[in-house]
Amino acid sequence: MTYQEALEKLSSCHQEHLLKYYDELNEAEKQALLSQIEKLDLSLLSLLSDEGGAREAVRGTFAPLGATTVEEINEKRAFYEEEGLKAIRAGKTGAVLLAGGQGTRLGFDKPKGMFNIGVDRELYIFECLINNLMDVVREAGVYIPLYIMTSEINNEDTVRFFTEKNFFGYDPSYVKFFIQDMAPCVGYDRKILMENKGKIASSPNGNGGWYASLKKAGLDEDLKKRGVEYLSVFAVDNVCQRINDPAWIGAVVSSGLDCGGKVVRKADPNERVGVLCLEDGKPSIVEYYEMTDDMINLKDENGRLLYAFGVILNYLFRVDKLEEIAGSRMMTHVVEKKIPYMDENGNFIKPEKPNGYKFELLVLDMIHMMDSCLSYEVIRNREFAPVKNATGVDSVESARKLLEENGVIL
Ligand code: UTP
User: Fold this and answer.
1) Which of 62, 151, 313, 389 could disulfide-link 395, Cβ–Cβ 3.0 to 4.6 Å?
2) What percentage of the chain reaches a pLDDT higher than 90?
3) Number of compact structural domains in the chain
4) How confident is the model at residue 58 (pLDDT cuts 50, 70, 90)?
5) pTM
6) Nearest CA to 317 among 62, 41, 96, 66?
7) In the predicted model, what is the mean pLDDT of residues 68-73?
8) 332 located within any domain
């Protein structure tokens, strides 16, 4: 893209300020900036209302979905495990680790997976996840292809760390990394922010673009080559989650449904978690802040809450269904964040409070793009130990406690 073309593109949306320091840049920096502008998706700006803030998303009619409960699963456990092991041994399952986030709440300056959650020994978050997956590898007697999504920001550190640590004993020929896309950051005045004179401020575009990014990296060919028919996706920060465990795989595979979502029973009706439910007859996740009091307290004839199961970011998708939706545009969420930027005088500012918006795609929106979903209950204390914060709720402290409860030596 030439300077003139870039200027025209930006003028159409009043973003010419991105070229303000163009003349001060050297040739390589000029090219880098023009290439960033060329890739810039300016249609994202239309998601911001004229007064600032995000335009409200229009939601459909919600209804409860219920879940296959732990009791029901236990009754059929032997069958589910057998079906699951069959699929795993036939090489039909793969796993995708979503590790492209910035983990700002934890306040750790390296990729979150590099955090040492051990106390008397080293035990890294990535290592916990690999250990969990290795349980299945040992039981099934085969490795499971593992695809790790990183971002431009943390890819190098992540790959180096895995290499230095010998993939924590995982067979490296079953591990592939891919890098997710970035999205521009925008100030409250709807102007795209600059990080420095030659670089637009941008951030990873959320965890929802994982399949598109995996395809862009050509890894859909790897899935085909290996015969992977089911892909699980999971967050980097839940150190206790079981990954591709046979009963879960078997339950989703034998259900014949398009996907599955692991859920935990809400600790109390007002817990701030997204609930797996139906929206206009299709599976969906309703966020806690979207729920009315009536929904929160809705009970069945036996007095049991109907919107009772929260998602834990552990899903299983049929790959053919992912292919079907691969070309569809996903909903983009606008989130207020603290964004480091360069002010009008060219000074770099690290704000103390939110100063603008990031654009994110969310994996939970993929659930609504599927026709059917198995809601699969797991025991909270066994499978849900997210490390979001340094202390308090969902923190290093709470996760350590749960790891110990589950027999992990720290
Ligand atoms: P979170 O919602 O916790 O976001 O991500 P985050 O960026 O990691 O953390 P905070 O909000 O800044 O503290 C849930 C999962 O989705 C992944 C994260 O790595 C984590 O596994 N994720 C998030 C991505 O892979 N890419 C993204 O752009 C965002």
Assistant:
1) 389
2) 95
3) 1
4) confident
5) 0.95
6) 96
7) 97
8) yes
* Domain enclosing residue 124, as ranges: 41-405
For ligand 1, atom 18, the nearest C-alpha belongs to 101
User: What is the distance in A from the centroid of ligand 1 to the CA of 176?
Assistant: 19
Q: Pick the residue whose CA is nearest to atom 4 on ligand 1.
A: 101
For tokens 């009772």, the residue is 308
Q: Which of 54-58, 201-205, 321-325, 380-384 has the lowest mean pLDDT?
A: 54-58
Half-sphere exposure of 295 (CA within 13 A, CB side): 21
Give ∠ CA 94-98-101 in degrees, rounded to 5: 170
| Dihedrals phi, psi of 356, to nearest 5 degrees | 180, -160
Residue 2 domain flag: no
Q: Could you report the per-residue pLDDT of 102-150, keeping only the tens digit for each?
A: 998 998 999 999 999 999 999 999 999 999 999 999 999 999 999 999 9
Q: How far is the CA of 409 from the centre of ligand 1 (A)?
A: 26
**In CATH, what number is assigned to the domain containing residue 326?**
3.90.550.10
Rounded alpha-carbon distances, angstroms, from residue 228 to 233, 339, 367: 14, 39, 20
**Ligand 1 and 283: CB distance under 6 A:** no
Structure tokens at 406: 């589950």
The stretch 289-307 carries a mean pLDDT of: 93
CA of 107 to the centre of ligand 1 (A): 13
Q: For the CA atoms of 129, 224, 153, 123, what is the dihedral angle to 10 degrees?
A: 10
**Tens-place pLDDT, residues 170-195:** 999 999 999 999 999 999 999 999 99
- Judge whether 23 lies within some domain: no
Q: How far apart are CA 242 and CA 238, in angstroms?
A: 9
User: Would 31 be classed as within a structural domain?
Assistant: no
Q: How far apart are the first and last CA of the chain?
A: 53
Q: Which of 110, 114, 236 to mutate to test the pocket of ligand 1 (most atoms within 8 A of CB)?
A: 236
Q: Return the pLDDT at 196.
A: 96
Answer whether 190's CB lies under 8 Å from 52's CB: yes
Instruction: Determine the distance separating the centroid of ligand 1 and the alpha carbon of 179, expressed in angstroms.
Output: 14
Average pLDDT for 279-289: 95
Q: Which helix (H) or strand (E) holds 72?
A: helix 70-75
**69 within ligand 1 shell (Cβ under 6 A):** no
Radius of gyration of the chain (CA): 22
